[in-house]
């Protein structure tokens, strides 16, 4: 069964998926008029609030919650895995994927705000499932069968992915890093602690999750970034060689580190793009779910704010991690010997741990802090995604059982039974991206047209007067 799941996982995250997502990034960059050039304005807008705008949480609250889910183990271990499999050149392609992925994040959030709805309590609901339903509805308000199928497929796959990606995998990462540095703490005790710390937040709903993320995410991201900058300062004599190696391996067939790491241009491209796409989640359809709850005057405002998430997660955090790892590999050639000794067993987690441990005093503490903080906030962020998707499928009565299952799976992941769940959730990630990307591409003309009006013609403060429909509660 595990072998079959791994085969499916390799297929769905193969060249076709990478081509779909990367191609969408490039196409939507063109359609939106290279919206990336509005990044400075978007960053300023992230810290603004509007008491008169309609929504449940602030611009920054929605961004922080999305970043909490995005900046996870992929920002450290995922980068190390890309370097291990694709060589230093993978760092460049990961970074470039983040740059172009900004346009996809903007487009999918724009569509989600445009077609969001309210529940009977007045709380906002949004995401690809509601886009499919509302964008193609007939005059009588009923969506055609194929639109309903797209909506159900996205919600179902996202619910599965949330349990694995957001719960089991992150809990397993937290346990692994804590146990390696404090082996006297049993895994079950760490699991219980995770369950308690997660439960006290997620059972309070989106307001509770966003409040915690607003405080924790900026602190953890800035602290980790500063830690990486300290390491880069310590590695200063090797930075030139490291950056040169990253660019050289990105465009040539040269194998890095004497063939110990990386397999040339195609592997660098494949793994750099794959891990970049996974790290920033542009195109997966996850961030639009929480962005739909934001108080915003029009779809363009929150879409601009949301696109900064891709910039922070991949263009900044993942890039810093990548340069830290490559410069440390250049500075400490003995790591290559460890990789050569166990070429099939040496994992991304081992590479990250080994590389950071080479930095005296600060290396390991930075890694431990980053892994624990990133994993915890990812559990919080993805809990909201799963919550909203399960509500769409089965109604509000399903929320509490799903939350209980979510924290139970976190405990199972912490005690080491999350491997199968991880593979299933990874498959779910790819499969949820397909209906999301399709609907965003179908609506790209509308997004481009309204972006011209709101962003490029100076109407960004205009209030969208379109009524937000109320869906019947179950």
Automatic annotation (TrEMBL):
The keyword Translocase does not apply. InterPro entries: Na/Ala_symport. Keywords: Cell membrane, Membrane, Symport, Transmembrane, Transmembrane helix, Transport. It is found in: Cell membrane. Pfam families: Na_Ala_symp (PF01235). The chain crosses the membrane at residues 12-30, 60-86, 92-113, 145-164, 184-204, 216-239, 245-269, 311-331, 366-385, 405-424, 430-448. Its main location: membrane. Belongs to the alanine or glycine:cation symporter (AGCS) (TC 2.A.25) family. NCBIfam families: agcS. This is Amino acid carrier protein.
């Amino acid at each position: 069964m595990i072998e079959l799941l791994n085969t499916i996982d390799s297929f769905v995250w193969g060249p076709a998926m990478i081509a779909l997502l990367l191609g969408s990034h490039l196409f939507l960059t063109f359609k939106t008029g290279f919206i990336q050039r509005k990044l400075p304005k978007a960053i300023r807008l992230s810290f603004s609030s509007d008491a008169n705008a309609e929504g449940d949480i602030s611009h920054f609250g929605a961004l922080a919650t999305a970043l909490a889910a995005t900046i996870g183990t992929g920002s450290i271990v995922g980068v190390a895995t890309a370097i291990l499999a694709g060589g230093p050149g993978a760092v460049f392609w990961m970074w470039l994927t983040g740059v172009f992925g900004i346009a996809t994040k903007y487009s999918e959030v724009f569509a989600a705000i445009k077609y969001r709805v309210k529940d009977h309590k007045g709380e906002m609901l949004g995401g690809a499932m509601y886009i499919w339903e509302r964008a193609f509805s007939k005059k009588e308000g009923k969506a055609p069968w194929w639109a309903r199928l797209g909506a159900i497929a996205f919600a179902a796959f996202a619910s599965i992915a949330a349990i694995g990606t957001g719960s089991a995998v992150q809990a397993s990462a937290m346990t692994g890093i804590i146990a390696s540095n404090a082996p006297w703490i049993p895994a079950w005790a760490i699991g219980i602690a995770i369950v308690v710390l997660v439960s006290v937040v997620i059972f309070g709903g989106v307001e509770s999750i966003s409040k915690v993320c607003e405080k924790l995410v900026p602190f953890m991201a800035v602290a980790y970034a500063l830690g990486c900058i300290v390491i880069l300062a310590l590695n200063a004599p090797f930075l030139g060689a490291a950056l040169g190696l990253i660019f050289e391996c990105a465009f040539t067939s040269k194998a890095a580190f004497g063939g110990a790491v990386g397999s040339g241009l195609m592997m660098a491209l494949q793994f750099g793009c794959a891990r970049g796409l996974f790290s920033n989640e542009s195109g997966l359809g996850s961030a639009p779910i929480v962005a739909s709850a934001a108080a915003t005057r029009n779809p363009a405002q929150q879409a601009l704010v949301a696109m900064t998430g891709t910039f922070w997660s991949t263009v900044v955090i993942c890039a810093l991690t990548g340069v830290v790892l490559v410069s440390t590999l250049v500075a400490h050639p003995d790591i290559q010997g460890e990789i050569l000794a166990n070429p099939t067993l040496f994992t991304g987690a081992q590479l990250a741990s080994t590389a950071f441990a080479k930095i005296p005093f600060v290396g390991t503490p930075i890694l431990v802090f980053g892994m624990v903080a990133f994993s915890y906030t990812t559990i919080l962020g993805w809990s909201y995604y799963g919550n909203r998707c399960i509500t769409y499928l089965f109604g509000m009565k399903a929320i509490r059982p799903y939350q209980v299952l979510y924290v139970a799976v976190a405990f199972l992941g912490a005690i080491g039974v999350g491997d199968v769940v991880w593979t299933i959730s990874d498959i779910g990630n790819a499969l949820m991206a397909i209906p999301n990307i399709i609907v965003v591409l179908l609506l790209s003309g509308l997004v481009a047209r309204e972006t011209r009006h709101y962003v490029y013609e100076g109407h960004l403060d205009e209030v969208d007067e379109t009524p937000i429909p109320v869906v019947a509660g179950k």
